[in-house]
Design brief:
By secondary structure, the protein is an alpha/beta fold. It is built from seven helices and four strands. It has helices at about 1-10, 20-25, 45-55, 85-115, 140-150, 165-180, 200-220; strands at about 70-75, 125-130, 155-160, 190. It has a four-stranded parallel β-sheet. α6 (about 165-180) links the parallel β3 and β4. The model is unreliable at about 1-5 and about 60-65 (pLDDT under 50).
């Protein structure tokens, strides 16, 4: 009868095993979250039990959200009355964008494979457009607006000039500054790179490659023999 009575008696908090330390203390929280100390796990009163329930809730998952960076690149040459010359710069811009897009796809796939998710730094997506300093359209203003319409968050202008003449070193920076104001951006928000010819080592590699290619082709075709 006694056993039956004991079985029928409702259980109390005193009958339950005391909570573990980490049930009442969350090491992920600041110590300032416990101004009265850690709740007593063996003889907790009502206030301590309330603290226990509050602090034993799982912490929200950390979510890191990084906005994707979109870079807009504007290639600028002098501009020509010959449509073929202007079309060549446009084709170069397309090829450059395609190369950067392949790099973006590879980097994005690698980041996904690493499993970092939103906490990883996404690679920048790059859009490239062509513009002309004068004579032909699109102008520098047109190019900047096109890149902004594509969602560019950073803008870079590249003077496509071989030599450090007045156009590359003076006119292009001035026109970019004027265009920056025209499209409603702050002065200095568009970065201007050095002209393409400023990379001397790269230019020498290109020249050397073309020279060696011409020599090899001459040997195969029987032309370009020694002059002496």
């Amino acid at each position: 009868a006694v056993a039956a009575a004991a079985a029928a008696a409702p259980s109390t908090d005193d009958d339950a095993p005391p909570p573990d330390l980490f049930d009442v203390f969350d090491p992920r929280l600041s110590p300032h979250s416990y101004p009265s100390g850690i709740p007593d796990s063996t003889s907790a009163g009502d206030a301590d039990q309330a603290s226990y329930k509050a602090f034993s809730r799982p912490a929200p998952a950390l979510q890191v959200v990084r906005e994707e960076e979109i870079v807009g690149v504007l290639l600028v040459d002098h501009g020509s009355r010959r449509g073929a010359s202007n079309a060549r710069l446009k084709a170069l811009a397309r090829l450059y964008e395609e190369r950067r897009s392949r790099d973006y796809d590879v980097a994005a796939a690698d980041a996904a494979a690493d499993g970092f998710g939103g906490a990883s730094t996404p690679p920048p997506r790059v859009f490239v457009r062509a513009a002309h300093m004068e004579i032909a359209r699109p102008s520098i203003d047109d190019g900047l607006r096109a890149l902004l319409d594509l969602g560019a968050t950073r803008l870079v202008c590249h003077p496509y000039f071989l030599s450090p003449g007045k156009h590359a070193t003076k006119d292009i920076p001035r026109l970019v500054e004027e265009a920056t104001e025209a499209v409603g951006l702050e002065i200095g928000s568009v970065v201007v790179t050095g002209h393409v010819g400023s990379r001397v080592e790269s230019m020498l590699d290109a020249v050397d490659g073309l020279v060696m290619e011409a020599l090899d082709m001459g040997r195969e075709e029987g032309t370009g023999d020694a002059v002496n």
